[in-house]
Target: Laccase
Amino acid sequence: MAINGDFVSKTTLFLVGLIAFISFPAEAAVRKYQFDIQVKNVSRLCHAKPIVTVNGRFPGPTIYAREGDRVIVNVTNHAKYNMSIHWHGLKQYRNGWADGPAYITQCPIKTGNSYGYDFNVTGQRGTLWWHAHILWLRATVYGAIVIMPKQGMPYPFPKPNMEQLVVLGEWWHKDVEEIVKQGNNMGLPPNMSDAHTINGKPGPLFPCSEKHTFAMEVESGKTYLLRIINAALNDELFFAIASHNMTVVEVDAVYTKPFVTQAILIAPGQTTNVLIQANQSPGRYFMAARPFMDAPIPVDNKTATGIFQYNGIPNTVLPTLPQLPASNDTDFALSYNKKLKSLNSANFPANVPLKVDRKLFYTVGFGKDSCPTCVNGTRILASLNNISFVMPKIGLLQAHYFNISGVFRTDFPDKPPKPFNYTGAPLTANLGTAHGTRLSKIAFNSTVELVLQDTNLLTVESHPFHLHGYNFFVVGTSIGNFDPVKDPAKYNLVDPVERNTVGVPTGGWTAIRFRADNPGVWFMHCHLELHTGWGLKMAFEVEDGKGADQSILPPPKDLPPC
Model:
């Protein structure tokens, strides 16, 4: 199992880029990037196909910045598809114009056109990522965002000797957009992916993949910071490195109380930073990623692998595989997520809202629509509070800012229309699911508690939800039906984990809290692309405040036309 030597140059490239970045002056800077959306032929699993890329790279280029910097990314679209880019986890204060989801905060960038995403990195440091936010194009259009702390501000954990990006993804043999179109026409889920990848490479357990294997060379006794990103479209993933423990120190660009684990669980959209020491017998060890699914739903259960290789060890030495949790290990998933807690230090406090102005309770469900041309005469849909979201034809933020009527309504319900035993026996009936572009209006600076409740409408399943424009605190989660009398007494209001994407457990609920201090229109959706396409999404319309710096900034002049 010989691995080619390009891993040394790739790792060196990352480190050289990081060193060059760190040498920049201390004052806030303007970082400029050019993203050319272009098609490139890429070979994986014995087969070449054209894919949409940024600058011909897969994964795409890394954005480097320091807390306090201004970042300008000019995106020019040379591909046949419309395009938009989302800077996942960046709060974009008052600046939804730079957030990126197509038809939510902007109309997409058409072929031959450009748009400049211009935003400040304020009060954030750590690992985030960017990706296409239209169709399923983020299957190949994605990359990392590395935000260094302010000059002179150390990490709140032992300084690593080196850092490494580990971006997890999925790969399809065929054109992803054609697969999705075929599935939609049939009223069925599209074909699952053919492989998982680590930094765009599936690893040697797949055919024709000896040269498509990511490898990381390490030195005995040194400590490494891995910046791990789950860029997969539809799979929560376990990740581990054989014989090596990891110390979790950050999730979603927020420092955590450190804890040691043999494996991590990371949902689509989430990031996790871990420290790992090269303290084992020098050799070659597999790093591996495989899906977690504890519902009776088929997934691509194949394992992506990379190599954690001590320097001086020949490639002829066979690596050992890590012991990943079983694919349906619910106990590990629940236990792991309970260990995630905010650092809550003097420099990085957990400002959890203790008083709640607005309580929301959203049910997550599936249903079926009539579809005479589909295979079974029906098409699957998904909903929040029995509303399957309909995408508008122009950006919701534009409609909000310019008071364009008829684009959306602001009557999204605070609770489901009819209570029922949410996680009881499977329900096959469609509980009157409506279709609409309905938003929830939130007063500026109000505190919000949102409980997301999974249901057994067709089936239970875990759902990673992402809220644009905000971080939130995960104050509670459990299996079963949420009890509004008993469960809040068990909330963690001291040091709950703070993040931008959170999993709702299969047949369970998750409660989050946040302060609505960022005016604009902000998307919230399941980060499983399959479910988002079925309508599992909504948006908040956060009103302007009364202060001079509490209203939406004017739109840029090059905002893409609709």
Observations:
- The first strand starts at residue 30 and ends at 44.
- The chain has three domains: 30-148, 162-339, 358-542.
- The helical segments are 6-22, 176-186, 330-339, 396-401, 529-533.
